[in-house]
């Protein structure tokens, strides 16, 4: 082919701005001819623009294909509208990883694998002899008590494998985390390492040696410690690339024992693996009483053993089913917007992935379903199934030696067993968190069934933190007061099981206490613990009191909220003693109009605004009485608008005046200036009330 003719070159120059302006001044017909000529040129500037598709008369009015009919039918029956379908598809495009980023992440993972396998060994020493540790790294674990039996030496890992959502292609942006299981060799562990935190001490020392050598490698831009799902006994090592890719991905290294190293029968929820004599420093009682079980401690060991088996299960179920993977991604977005997946005990993306696998095994979800269908099915299951009462299991074995679901319900609040039948996947999830998940699932299903135009926006695009979801919110600070609460509530077995985490140990008792005290006033009580931030490898791990503030949210019922009376049993009933013990000095005998003499509690409240804040009195009284938490440590947020409702006297009383219309009817002509003045006064009062209240409870 030769060079283009001069006329063609001149026409190609019409793509310049000056030529385009001249073209607009031509007649409509000339413009059309010029446009048609440009479209035929090869290498024209408008070639990159979208051009209209020319269809013949037959093609324009041909019958839709079966695929198009199925898509229209599916849109009408499942998505309610084409708009919702487009919104879901666009959201999935936004949260998925692009192929270019996957290639860069894969290259980084290969380098991490090679460098981890080259970390040198260390000589064998006792667990308490940690003088071999370099000066620039600290053990990422609180070693309390410090004395423990056993020996340790670092050996290169047996294997390093990628586990988690990245391998399954279900991870979502913007925070891309890749979990890698670092299998410790058998020579490093002993049979009794499951006792008295020996395994967790070796796990932490193993991480410290990895952190020291990887931290000196210039290939990594950041090497830091963090806690795995907020569990302080299970730290992990975070690795990030160097340079412009620092925010591309975060690789989390999880040391784990070889598969089947520990016998599962020793890690059942009824077994004890933390001896009281070692943890409390006291000799066991001589009355022959058994050691308290340590179900959470046992579960954390089992979790490390099951990392690879869980990935294999999810890989088998999800496989090439793109709809299931899209559903898991949508569920993760749903959880993230409601902050339900944060901190210890959160309902994580791993849990919803395993829940999808369970629903597939029970044929409530089919592998051919779309992501939206999977989302609806899981939300419907969560809204109608209470795992705090009736647990579920992925185990198909009929082995009589395996514990029953009832045994797990005695040890845990929420029960969801994996395929082994020994590990409760929801061991760290509290009843309050699961009930909050249930509540949000019900609201989401009602929103989807309502076919609202903005349903997608509220469901998956709008953040819903606790301050927006609950009527009243209270913050407990400082968290060190919960240590005294554990002693007051006699929670020594819980502290022994949780490795001294007094926040987690006291949380269940506090929520139960407040639920009982608020009674019919309360619809839902939930809690939120901020996730522990990562820290430098040269620093000591953060303490329990450094995890910020424990936040409790109260969703109240309008019925009975303003009642000033807590009516108890009659004085001669056996329950009267329990009522007096629960309410303390607030309980008193009262004679009622029907002649009955009952125990009762009367709250001080004169105005309606004070009655709406009766839950504040209930909370502060019960926490001080039973948990030794003074009211100065309870920062209560509620009734912020009451100050505005109580002060309408500053606003203008002249809202308008009555006039007679032409038809003889009385109509009101509004006083616009007075109304605007009222809004200005209310706005200033609202800002002042919020600022004054914030100074009292912001920590």
UniProtKB/TrEMBL annotation:
<dbReference type="GO" id="GO:0006409">
    <property type="term" value="P:tRNA export from nucleus"/>
</dbReference>
<dbReference type="GO" id="GO:0032545">
    <property type="term" value="C:CURI complex"/>
</dbReference>
<dbReference type="InterPro" id="IPR035082">
    <property type="entry name" value="Nrap_D1"/>
</dbReference>
<dbReference type="GO" id="GO:0032040">
    <property type="term" value="C:small-subunit processome"/>
</dbReference>
<feature type="domain" description="Nrap protein">
    <location>
        <begin position="324"/>
        <end position="462"/>
    </location>
</feature>
<dbReference type="GO" id="GO:0005694">
    <property type="term" value="C:chromosome"/>
</dbReference>
<keyword id="KW-0539">Nucleus</keyword>
<dbReference type="InterPro" id="IPR035368">
    <property type="entry name" value="Nrap_D3"/>
</dbReference>
<feature type="domain" description="Nrap protein">
    <location>
        <begin position="178"/>
        <end position="317"/>
    </location>
</feature>
<dbReference type="Pfam" id="PF17404">
    <property type="entry name" value="Nrap_D3"/>
</dbReference>
<dbReference type="Pfam" id="PF03813">
    <property type="entry name" value="Nrap"/>
</dbReference>
<comment type="similarity">
    <text>Belongs to the NRAP family.</text>
</comment>
<feature type="domain" description="Nrap protein">
    <location>
        <begin position="468"/>
        <end position="627"/>
    </location>
</feature>
<dbReference type="GO" id="GO:0034456">
    <property type="term" value="C:UTP-C complex"/>
</dbReference>
<keyword id="KW-0158">Chromosome</keyword>
<dbReference type="GO" id="GO:0003723">
    <property type="term" value="F:RNA binding"/>
</dbReference>
<comment type="subunit">
    <text>Part of the small subunit (SSU) processome, composed of more than 70 proteins and the RNA chaperone small nucleolar RNA (snoRNA) U3. Interacts with RRP7A; required for NOL6 localization to nucleolus.</text>
</comment>
<dbReference type="InterPro" id="IPR035367">
    <property type="entry name" value="Nrap_D2"/>
</dbReference>
<comment type="function">
    <text>Part of the small subunit (SSU) processome, first precursor of the small eukaryotic ribosomal subunit. During the assembly of the SSU processome in the nucleolus, many ribosome biogenesis factors, an RNA chaperone and ribosomal proteins associate with the nascent pre-rRNA and work in concert to generate RNA folding, modifications, rearrangements and cleavage as well as targeted degradation of pre-ribosomal RNA by the RNA exosome.</text>
</comment>
<protein>
    <recommendedName>
        <fullName>Nucleolar protein 6</fullName>
    </recommendedName>
</protein>
<keyword id="KW-0694">RNA-binding</keyword>
<dbReference type="Pfam" id="PF17403">
    <property type="entry name" value="Nrap_D2"/>
</dbReference>
<dbReference type="GO" id="GO:0006364">
    <property type="term" value="P:rRNA processing"/>
</dbReference>
<dbReference type="InterPro" id="IPR005554">
    <property type="entry name" value="NOL6/Upt22"/>
</dbReference>
């Amino acid at each position: 082919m030769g060079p283009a003719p001069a006329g063609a070159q001149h026409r190609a120059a019409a793509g310049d701005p000056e030529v385009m302006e001249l073209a607009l001044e031509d007649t409509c017909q000339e413009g059309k001819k010029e446009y048609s000529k440009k479209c035929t040129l090869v290498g024209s500037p408008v070639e990159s623009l979208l051009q209209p598709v020319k269809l013949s008369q037959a093609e324009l009015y041909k019958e839709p294909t079966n695929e198009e009919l199925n898509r229209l039918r599916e849109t009408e029956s499942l998505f309610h509208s084409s708009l919702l379908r487009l919104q879901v598809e666009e959201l999935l495009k936004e949260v998925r990883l692009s192929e270019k980023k996957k290639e860069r992440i894969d290259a980084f993972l290969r380098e991490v694998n090679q460098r981890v396998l080259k970390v040198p060994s260390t000589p064998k020493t006792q667990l308490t002899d940690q003088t071999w540790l370099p000066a620039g790294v600290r053990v990422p674990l609180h070693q309390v008590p410090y004395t423990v039996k056993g020996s340790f030496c670092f050996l290169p890992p047996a294997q390093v494998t990628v586990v988690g959502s990245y391998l399954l292609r279900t991870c979502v942006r913007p925070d891309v985390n890749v979990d890698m299981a670092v299998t410790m060799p058998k020579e490093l562990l002993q049979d009794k390492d499951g006792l008295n935190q020996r395994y967790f001490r070796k796990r932490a020392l193993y991480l410290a040696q990895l952190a020291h050598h990887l931290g000196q490698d210039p290939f990594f831009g950041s090497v830091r410690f963090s806690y795995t799902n907020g569990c302080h006994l299970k730290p992990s090592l975070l690795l990030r690339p160097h340079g412009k890719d620092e925010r591309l991905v975060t690789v989390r290294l999880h040391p784990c024992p070889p598969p089947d190293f520990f016998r599962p029968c020793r890690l059942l929820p009824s077994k004890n693996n933390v001896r009281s004599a070692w943890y409390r420093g006291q000799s066991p009682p001589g009355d022959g009483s058994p050691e308290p079980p340590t179900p959470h401690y046992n579960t954390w060991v089992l979790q490390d053993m099951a990392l690879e088996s869980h990935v294999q299960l999810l890989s088998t179920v999800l496989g090439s089913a793109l709809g299931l993977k899209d559903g898991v991604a949508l569920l993760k977005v749903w959880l993230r917007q409601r902050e339900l997946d944060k901190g210890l005990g959160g309902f994580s993306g791993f849990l919803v992935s395993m829940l999808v696998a369970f629903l597939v095994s029970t044929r409530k979800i089919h592998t051919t379903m779309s992501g939206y269908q999977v989302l609806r099915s899981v939300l419907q299951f969560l809204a109608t199934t209470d795992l705090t009462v009736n647990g579920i299991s992925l185990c198909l074995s009929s082995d009589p030696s395996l514990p029953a679901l009832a045994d797990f319900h005695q040890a845990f609040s929420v029960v969801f067993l994996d395929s082994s039948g020994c590990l409760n996947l929801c061991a760290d999830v509290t009843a309050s968190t699961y009930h909050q998940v249930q509540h949000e699932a019900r609201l989401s299903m009602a929103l989807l069934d309502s076919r609202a135009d903005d349903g997608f926006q509220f469901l998956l695009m709008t953040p819903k933190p606790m301050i927006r979801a609950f009527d009243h919110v209270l913050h407990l600070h400082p968290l060190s007061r919960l240590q005294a609460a554990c002693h007051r509530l006699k929670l020594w077995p819980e502290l022994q099981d949780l490795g001294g985490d007094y926040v987690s140990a006291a949380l269940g008792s506090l929520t139960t206490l407040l639920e009982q005290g608020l009674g019919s006033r309360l619809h839902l009580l939930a809690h939120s613990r901020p996730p522990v931030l990562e820290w430098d490898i040269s620093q000591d791990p953060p303490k329990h009191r450094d995890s910020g503030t424990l936040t409790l949210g109260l969703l109240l019922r309008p019925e009975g909220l303003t009642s000033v009376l807590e009516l108890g049993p009659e004085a001669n009933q056996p329950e009267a003693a329990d009522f007096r013990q629960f309410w303390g000095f607030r309980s008193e005998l009262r004679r009622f109009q029907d002649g009955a003499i009952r125990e009762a509690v009367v709250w001080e409240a004169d105005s309606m605004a004070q009655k709406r804040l009766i839950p504040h009195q209930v909370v502060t009284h019960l926490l001080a009485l039973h948990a030794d938490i003074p009211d100065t440590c309870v920062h209560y947020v509620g009734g912020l608008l009451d100050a505005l409702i109580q002060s309408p006297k500053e606003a203008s009383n002249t809202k308008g005046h009555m006039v007679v219309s032409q038809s003889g009817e009385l109509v009101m002509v509004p006083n616009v200036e007075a109304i605007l003045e009222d809004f200005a006064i209310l706005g200033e009062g609202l800002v002042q009330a919020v600022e004054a209240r914030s100074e009292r409870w912001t920590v």
